[in-house]
Structure formats: C-alpha cells, structure tokens
Amino acid sequence: MSPTTEQQWTPTHGEPYRPVPYRPARMPAAESLARAAALRETMGQRRTVRQFSPDPVPEQAVRDAVACAATAPSGAHQQPWTFVLVRDPEIRRRIREAAEHEERVSYDGRLGEEWLAALRPLGTDAVKSHLTDAPALIVVFQQRYWLAEDGTKHKHYYVDESVGIAVGMLLSALHQSGLAALVHTPSPMRFLREVLGRPVNEKAFAVIPVGYPAEGCEVPDLVRKSLEQVLVEL
Ligand SMILES: Cc1cc2nc3c(=O)[nH]c(=O)nc-3n(C[C@H](O)[C@H](O)[C@H](O)COP(=O)(O)O)c2cc1C
Fold this sequence. Notes:
This protein is of the alpha+beta class. The chain has one domain: NADH Oxidase (3-Layer(aba) Sandwich). The protein contains nine helices and seven strands. It has helices spanning about 5-10, 30-45, 60-70, 90-110, 115-120, 130-135, 160-175, 190-195, 225-230, and strands spanning about 50-55, 80-85, 135-145, 145, 155, 180, 200-215. The structure holds flavin mononucleotide. Flavin mononucleotide binds near residues 50, 182, 184, 219 and 222.
C-alpha cells in the first residue's frame, strides 16, 4: 500500500534549525499549587472501564482529546503516531471477533501461568464486549519508520516512548472531558492493521474503547502506590 500524504509530512526532515520566541506568562505559585492539587484529585478518580454503555459520546470531545494527544513530545519531533477513530459498528464487530480469537488462545495457555496470575485480580477474560458496546474505539498505531514518496524508509526514533506518552495524554484528556476509556492490548494485534487497512510502516499499539460506564459498572478494587513509594527526592 502506498503511503498517505500526511505520512510523507515530517517537519524535521531536511529543515534547518529555526528558533521562534517562547515566552509563556509565568503562573503565580499559588495558582500552580491550586491547579496541581485539583488535577491530582481529578486524575485520582480515573479508572479503567471495561463495561461500557452504548450511549453516544460528544464526537468533538473525542477529536479534541486526540488533538491533545498529538501535542505530545516525540523523539526528534517525528510524531510517530496515527489514531484511527472507529465508530462503524461492523468494523468494531470485526475487531472484536479477531481480538477474541487471539484472547481465547492467550487465556487458554499462551500467556503462561505467571501472566494469568497477574491478570486474575483484574477479573478479565477472553470476552471483550467493550469492543462492540463502547460507541467509539481509538486504535493507536506507531509509525515504526517514515516512508518517503520514493519508497525509501527513514527510521523513527524512540517510537515506543513517544507513543506511550501520547497515549497517556490521550487518556488524561478523555478523563478530563468526562469520558471513560480502557487501554486494551490484544496480543498479538497484527490483525488491526489488516482490518483497518493501515500501511506497512504502522504497527498497532493499543485499542482504546471510549464511552460512558455502563449502568452498574464495576471496577476491580485496586490499590495505587503512594507518592512516597514512587517518588525519590534527593
Ligand atoms: C500498556 C497497557 C496495557 C493494558 N492492557 C489491557 C488489556 O489488554 N486489557 C484490559 O482489560 N486492561 C488493560 N490495561 C488496563 C490495566 O489493567 C489498568 O490500567 C490497571 O489495572 C490499573 O487500573 P486503573 O487504570 O483503573 O487504574 C492495560 C493498561 C496498560 C497501561
């Protein structure tokens, strides 16, 4: 498949260094503290949802969240990501069918006992109804390399890190817009490139159902590490 126009656009290829002024107004410390505390409280309420209502979500809020994700920093500013927003019920059905096929093999032994034991407290199994219940899926692809018009490949750097950061920002934006999400990583997920007709330089990273929690939705009772456990101050 030939690369699309936007894949050929990579701003740092061949550009000279061209600085522009950056002078954001400095926020007063009191406002920083208030905003940080409020955001900590808001983000503390985010949970992964696996039981979705089929109710539609405000579509522009999802697009805005993707636009937020696309402001993420990336290795050499190569922005090695594609977000495919799938609302079409037939495509979601096909994704679910293929994902459940892989998940059945995984849960029937491919994962190994240690991995299965790690998953047990989450209560997950091979049934992935969120893929058809949630009104939208955002399928995130990594662009492992950039394909020039003449077909030559140009390596992208720090693709895993860059896309991981972008997905973190996406989840944050969705949550702050009042939408629930799940990072679903069926393994292997090669089928996603085929089902969604993506080019060869793209590799699926995650499927993110987006919507509202179903009535009666439950989540596992998990404990987060405390700040003291995760922060080392020297
Ligand atoms: C990289 C990654 C992969 C994940 N894969 C799956 C998955 O395939 N299926 C699933 O149900 N949850 C998946 N999760 C969600 C985690 O299980 C969830 O974030 C974790 O249990 C913490 O719960 P919380 O998000 O509610 O805080 C994944 C999360 C991450 C970050």
